[in-house]
Amino acid sequence: MSDLALLALNLTEARDGLARKMFSARELAAAYNDAVSKAKPLNAYITPTPERALAMADAADERLARGEALPLDGIPIAVKDLFCTKDILTTAGSHVLDGFHPPYESTVSDKLWQAGGVMLGKTNLDEFAMGSSNTTSWYGPVENPWRRPGDNRPLVPGGSSGGSAAAVAAHAALAAIGTDTGGSIRQPASFCGIVGLKPTYGRCSRCGVVAFASSLDHPGPMARTVRDVAIMLSAMAGHDPRDSTSAPVPVADFEKALTGDIRGLRVGIPQEYRVDGMPRDIEALWQQGVEWLRTAGAEPVEISLSMTKYALPTYYIIALAEASSNLARYDGVRFGLRVEGDGLEEMYELTRAAGFGAEVRRRVLIGTYVLSAGYYDAYYLKAQRVRTLIARDFAAAFERVDCILTPTAPSTAFAIGEKSGDPIEMYLNDVFTVPANLAGVPAISVPAGLSGDGLPLGLQITGRAFDEETVLRVAQVLENAASFRHLPSFLAGAGR
Amino acid sequence: MALDKETVAHIATLARIRVAEAELELLANELSHILSWVEQLNEVDTTGVAPMASAAAASLPMRDDAVNDGGCREAILGNAPRVARGFFTVPKVVE
């Protein structure tokens, strides 16, 4: 098979091709190593690991030859550079982690390698996963492989898992892992035309994931199809005693959930998501999604998630408070950057001033403020109480419906620098995705169509806690109905 | 809530981030803008509503009180900017 044909296979097809000995894991890894290097203009990878990929592929080939294939044997996977990888540079997109080589492996990436996965490298991201456009990385912005037809301006891939999304979309990775604190898997999946799943809180271990906001951070898979994502999730999920919030819940074979049968399922349509200023093509696609599910035998039900408009401010208080606490560890003593100063305090202050970018600094300062004496109750505790109401909204909805259908994001990919400098305008990208993080429920973005200006748009399915099976099943029905076959203008094997 | 330059300087000290005097004004405006936006939460009546800290089960799991890790000093010190004789080192602190 030619490299181009190899790269065009999705994860499921590649797995089956490996099993049928149509090509070797080494051939596949070599094609992807080459694609990673050709995708350099996108800046999707911070650290490619080609030698590691070939060594892992050889081990997979030996198992395949013995007939002892593991579930992900020979599958080339990109890892967001927020997951610690043993002895491989891990940056979180930040200057403050300069030179950090973790002495341990994150649980989720370790599970992928235990399942036979092949590591392609570490992907770019917003600094500490703080952003919705992948423009805050110390390693520079990531470019979306998509462009508007007839418009040469580079577009953002979304964020914060923008490198992972761009790599998968450009066929420079077969699948990837990301993290989603307020939409950081689903929004870039929507912007890049791929599938991204934020599982239930506690489903995938956070051990070894550089912390942003501990009660909101969710590791999850990104890939080209719903089935690919289901296969990834089965390998990544599971209880981990090293993460106290990891749930001791059995892991299903999620691929088996993809029966295609959603007859009689009740699908909630929340009226509050019809926000002012939502582009007409997104509204129309949402309505189309309702019709697709109705045609497949599901029953659309109007529901109310009355606290939706308060989810974003609630999210920003909680996420920033937790971030200011988590980022206190970057002190120039134990790892990463150190800027010497006159005494210990000055060393801390200079190290953190030099190490954090503008968005991270802004967020740490706000987080510090809302946790400070006299303001804790007014901001932080208030936000935690509203969070309870948001979770109750979902609990009440899920008494009436089995899942919820909404758009993933209120816009398509925008050009780098197209937005104003107003941080709140950037925060509004996450208006449809943050509620699921606050409530901890699973949600997936599926590419469902193109906007008027030729860019991918995602629809989001949200489900009950630990019911990824329904989420995936409905998502696949949506995927089949939409039959999104469009490709970005840049493909790693072919160029632009 | 509008923050003034002095408050921003105080927050920066609490956060241990050195901020140049020339940046305080801009930061005060930015932070005030974000804080006034989040204050829309005051519209929500949360009387009698318990705060939610996490979507995970409320009680933390217990494990046996036994050593199950450790003995890896070299690995831990391996990333430190400055070490001496098996310790992290910091600038001299004299109170």
Explain what you see.
The complex is a heterodimer of chains A (496) and B (95). Chain A has a domain at 3-258 and 478-482: Amidase signature (AS) enzymes (Alpha-Beta Complex). Chain A has 16 helices and 11 strands. Chain A has helices spanning 3-8, 11-19, 25-38, 50-66, 107-114, 162-169, 186-192, 226-236, 280-295, 308-326, 344-355, 358-371, 376-400, 423-427, 434-439, 468-482, and strands at 45-48, 76-80, 118-123, 175-180, 195-198, 218-223, 266-270, 299-303, 403-407, 443-450, 456-463. In chain A, α6 (162-169) runs parallel beside α7 (186-192) and α10 crosses α12. The two termini of chain A are 22 Å apart. The model of chain A has no long low-confidence stretch (mean pLDDT 96). In chain B, a hairpin with a 2-residue loop joins β1 (83-84) and β2. A two-stranded antiparallel sheet of chain B has the order 1-2. The longest helix of chain B is centred in the first third of the chain and has 18 residues, at 21-38. Chain B contains 3 helices and 2 strands. Chain B is mainly alpha-helical. The interface between A and B is large, with 71 and 51 residues.
